[in-house]
Amino acid sequence: MGPKVSRMWARVSLSLAMASAAALVLTLALGELLDLGPAGAGLAIGGVLLAGLLMLLAVAATARLRCPGCGKQTVRPQWGPGRRLYCPLCGAALVYDDEEEDAAQPEAASGPEREERWRSGFRD
Ligand SMILES: [Zn+2]
User: Ligand 1: distance of its center to the CA of 46 in Å?
Assistant: First the structure.
């Protein structure tokens, strides 16, 4: 079992990036909706600074995501298990720590399900 990509840091990074975008959108929306005059400029600067800070933290979090093969930062953060991605540099499978290493799905799950289908067909 080789090293794996941290799901936690992927989610931290994605959350921070979304919070950054939300802060920016909220700042712009509030600036449009409320006519705050001089106070509006302060709000806008604060909002943009907050968004920038959150984006910096998101980038810092992605630095924790490294290819298990070559150690380069080639991992695109994924919120949950889905399509298996591969490192563009070394071709290693980017397996997260909540995923199985081999892509083959176990056949054991089809057994009881097939029996259940047979029974329901018998009842009709
Ligand atoms: Zn790699």
Answer: 39
**For residue 86, how far is its CA from the centre of ligand 1 (angstroms)?**
8
d(CA 7, CA 106): 23
How far is residue 18's CA from residue 64's CA, in Å, rounded to a whole number?
Answer: 18
CA of 49 to the centre of ligand 1 (A): 34
C-beta of residue 4 within 8 angstroms of C-beta of residue 65: no
55 CA → ligand 1 middle, Å: 25
Spacing, Cα 70 to ligand 1 middle (Å): 4
Q: pLDDT means per 10 residues in the chain (124 residues)? A: 87 97 93 79 90 97 94 94 93 93 50 50 52
Distance CA 14, CA 53 (A): 14
